[in-house]
Structure formats: structure tokens, C-alpha cells
Design a protein that fits this description.
Blueprint (H helix, E strand, L loop, with lengths): L3 E4 L9 H16 L3 E6 L9 H14 L5 E4 L4 H13 L3 E4 L3 H13 L15 H9 L5 E4 L15 E6 L3 E6 L7 E3 L8 H10 L4 E5 L3 H13 L6 E5 L2 E2 L15 H6 L4 H10 L12 H6 L11 E2 L2 H14 L2 H10 L7 H8 L9 H10 L9 H12 L10 H13 L4 H12 L7 H14 L4
Parallel strand pairs: 1-2, 2-3, 9-10, 11-12
Antiparallel strand pairs: 4-5, 5-8, 6-7
Helix pairs in contact: 1-9, 6-7, 9-11, 12-13
């Protein structure tokens, strides 16, 4: 049996870090099990689903390093769902209901006042043919509910019926079907809600493992019953904890909170996003993995906490800095060229500055400093200005090698008596216009003698 997973978002907005967590959990699980990854778009909500969102989701996933084996759209598979509906009707486990939303809301309120759970009471099962005919003549169209198997003989007398499964993440899980309403599978207009197409597709596509957020735990009890009603063996389920903002708020595609697109535009590396999205809220230390193969070695669904995990964007910058500091020139080369950083000095430049940047784009400012001098020349006291004049007079002649900085500062120390910060800080400000940055020993050979003298105050 080939392990087969799927990531099935609705294309109603741009995915955020929480959605990426689910996609990555599935991708890494497939990697570790030499399995298949299906990208499925649950786009049966025709009014809100848009192709532009599907395209942006695929782009974001590719940016993260996820490349599906196949991509499917539920809107193109309606005939398969229609056939499943006829099977359920024939089995008498899909029944027509004619209540309006207002009537259903009133019934829930009545049940609450009686101390009963606000679940659907299956009143539609008691309708006479005459009542149905009257509804039809009034122009009412039915929605269709799945009859949960939570009774012995009389569906109007539900009893505790436990659905159990061994969750990949949470261990033993139980859902009582008697505590739930029969789910609506088909709307009045004939379109499908999430539950039926999801189950039918999982069957048809051979999905073996469903890994998703723990907000679906209750849905899983219903879906297992539906798998069985369709004569299929349910897949293995795993429900990971959800990510929230630092303040504890849930993430949403509609609000764009921490969207992958916004993180990419902010200069965050894909592996910083992937590392934090996967490892936060687990027993693993959150460290920056170099690639998804390395991350997969640290991935274990069972290591995930059952409680929600707070996602702190500041942690992304910590991981991003780590990735920058470790990034070899060969990996950065093409991206640096796009930023205008190329030529014989590009590799030495990158090795000199990578330890002092948060984002790759930060290298541009240092390239300009080396090429054109400080962007904002520093102000010096009269004493420091005299010191710098004397220091620049001592600048060694070319050719220069890797010891030029040490040789130069040695001469300055001997001639002026300055050492430590009083010696180095005026030189740094004169050369770069900044109080901190890459080692001047690395920058000086890149500036060259002529470029260095040009910075003399």
C-alpha cells in the first residue's frame, strides 16, 4: 500500500502559516514514507472559490518546496458526488428536510430550554407524503441530511454510539454520534457541503492518511460513519494542534493574518517559515532546517502537543538570521545577481556580510556602501577628525592581502597611542557610516586602497 495524503484547502483566500503547517505535515509525512501527495481544492462553494486563490496557493506551496504529485478540483468531479448521493438515498441514509434556517434556530432554542443538546431532532423523518407535497407546492426545496448510525431500531431514539480511532497525533480518540446533528450533505440548491465530496474523494483517490487541524476532530467521527455507509475503509486520521497569533487569536485566510505571501514579501526565507510552522508546538527544538529533507528528519506527528501553539513572527527573524549566516555563496548567487550584486567581488562580499543581515535583501545596502561609500557620512569631533587624517596617511600601499587591516591598525596604534573602541569606531564610521557591521578586515580588501582613501573625512 502506497501512503497517500492530501492537502485540501478551499480557494477562498491566500493561505497563512497555519494552513502551511497542515500542508507541510502532509508533505513531510509523505516524504518519510515514500508516499504520494495530492493537492486538492475543495471548491464546491462556487460563490467564494476563485481560481486566482488556487493559483496563489500553488505558488506559495511551491515556494515552500511542496510539489504535488497531482492536483484536483472538486468542482470538476460533481458527477462522482451525484452517484454517491444516489447510493446513499438507495440505502435510506440520506433524507430530505424542508426546514428553513429560522425554523431550525427556533427548534435549537426550544431544546436548550428543555435541557437537551441543540441537535437536529430528525423531524423530517416523520413528515407525511401530504406534508411533503405541501412544502413542494409552496416552493420549498429540500436539503439532504446523512442519517448517523446512532440508534438501534428507531432513529427518533438516538443512543450513545462511540466512534473510536487511533489518532496519529492525539492517540486514542472518541466521538459520540448521539451528541451530533445529522450533517447536511446537500444544500437546497443542489450544491455540496464539505463533508460528502471530501469523503468520496478520499475513497476515489486512495487517500490512506488524513492529517489536518484538530478543529476537525468531531468531523472525523461523522466522516468515519460516512466512509462506512459508502462501503469503504476509513483512512488513518491525525489531528495536529492549531496555530494562533501571539495574542491567542485564530488565523484566517479572510483576514490575511501571517499569510505566506506577506511573509515572502517581507524577505523571510521559505525554510524559516517551514521550520517554525512545523516545529512550533512540538517537543522538538525550533531550529532552522536547511531544507525539507533535514526538516523531515525532525518531523514526528506524535511529538505534537494537544494544546494550541502561539506563532510569534519575531521567531521567524531569528531563524532567518541563522539561515542567512549559514547560506553558502552558491545558494545565494543567483538571487544576489537579481539584486545587482555580481562580479569578481561578489563571493567575498557575501561571505563578509552574510553574518550581519536579517534578510538577503539587506545585502544591497552593504553593496552600496562598498561601491559608493557611506550613505550618510558620519559627523566627527575635531579630535576624531585629526585622528582620522593621521590614520589615512598611514594607509598601506598596494598590493593588499588579508592582513592589510591588521597591518594598518597596528601602524595607527603605534603612531597615535589609540586602541580599542577609540581607534576602531572612528574608522568604522568613516569607512561605512555605521557603528556596527561586518568585520572591517573583510571589507577593506573589497574597498581597495583607492576606494578606502575616498572615504577620508
Amino acid at each position: 500500500m502506497t501512503v497517500t495524503v492530501r492537502f485540501a484547502p478551499s480557494p477562498t483566500g491566500r493561505i497563512h502559516i497555519g494552513n502551511a503547517r497542515t500542508a507541510l505535515f502532509n508533505w513531510l509525512f509523505a516524504m518519510n514514507n515514500k508516499g504520494r501527495y495530492i493537492q486538492r481544492f475543495d471548491d464546491t462553494d462556487v460563490g467564494r472559490s476563485k481560481q486566482e486563490f488556487a493559483d496563489s496557493i500553488l505558488y506559495d506551496l511551491h515556494w515552500l518546496g511542496i510539489f504535488p504529485d497531482v492536483t484536483e478540483y472538486q468542482s470538476r468531479r460533481v458527477d462522482i458526488y451525484d452517484a454517491a448521493v444516489e447510493r446513499l438515498k438507495a440505502a435510506r441514509v440520506l433524507y430530505a428536510c424542508y426546514e428553513t434556517p429560522e425554523e431550525l434556530d427556533l427548534r435549537r432554542k426550544v431544546r436548550r430550554t428543555r435541557g437537551l443538546p441543540p441537535v437536529y431532532g430528525r423531524e423530517a423523518l416523520t413528515l407525511t407524503p401530504e406534508q411533503v407535497a405541501e412544502y413542494v407546492s409552496d416552493g420549498r426545496r429540500p436539503h439532504w441530511r446523512f442519517l448517523l448510525p446512532n440508534f438501534t431500531s428507531d432513529p427518533l431514539q438516538p443512543e450513545r454510539t462511540e466512534v473510536r480511532w487511533n489518532d496519529l497525533v492525539r492517540g486514542e480518540e472518541t466521538v459520540d454520534l448521539a451528541s451530533l446533528s445529522d450533517p447536511v450533505l446537500v444544500r437546497e440548491d443542489g450544491t455540496y457541503l464539505y463533508t460528502l465530496p471530501s469523503v468520496v474523494d478520499d475513497i476515489e483517490m486512495g487517500v490512506t492518511h488524513v492529517i489536518r487541524g484538530d478543529d476537525h476532530v468531531t468531523n472525523t467521527g461523522v466522516q468515519i460513519a460516512l466512509f462506512q455507509a459508502l462501503g469503504a475503509e476509513p483512512p488513518i486520521f491525525g489531528h495536529h494542534n492549531l496555530l494562533t497569533t501571539v495574542s491567542g487569536e485564530g488565523l484566517s485566510k479572510r483576514t490575511g493574518a501571517l499569510s505566506i505571501e506577506s511573509l515572502r514579501q517581507d524577505g523571510i526565507e521559505p525554510m524559516a517559515v517551514a521550520s517554525l510552522a512545523v516545529l512550533v508546538g512540538t517537543s522538538e527544538n525550533v531550529t532552522a532546517a536547511h531544507d525539507l529533507n533535514e526538516l523531515a528528519a525532525h518531523f514526528d506527528p506524535a511529538a505534537t502537543s494537544k494544546s494550541a501553539a502561539k506563532f510569534d513572527p519575531d521567531e521567524l527573524f531569528v531563524l532567518n538570521r541563522t539561515l542567512m549566516h549559514q547560506m553558502p555563496f552558491e545558494e545565494a548567487r543567483d538571487r544576489l545577481i537579481v539584486l545587482g550584486i555580481s562580479g569578481d567581488k561578489a563571493e567575498s562580499f557575501w561571505l563578509a556580510v552574510r553574518g550581519n543581515i536579517d534578510r538577503l535583501s539587506d545585502a544591497v545596502a552593504w553593496w552600496r556602501i562598498l561601491s559608493d561609500g557611506p550613505q550618510e557620512p558620519a559627523e566627527f569631533s575635531g579630535e576624531d577628525r585629526d585622528f582620522l587624517h593621521q590614520a589615512f596617511d598611514l594607509l598601506p600601499e598596494e598590493p593588499w592581502n588579508g592582513t592589510v587591516w591588521k597591518d594598518w591598525t597596528g601602524k595607527i596604534k603605534e603612531a597615535t597611542g589609540r586602541k580599542g573602541k577609540p581607534l576602531f569606531m572612528p574608522l568604522r564610521l568613516a569607512l561605512t557610516g555605521r557603528t556596527s557591521g561586518p568585520e572591517l578586515a573583510d571589507l577593506l580588501p573589497l574597498m581597495g586602497r583607492e576606494g578606502t582613501l575616498a572615504r577620508r573625512p
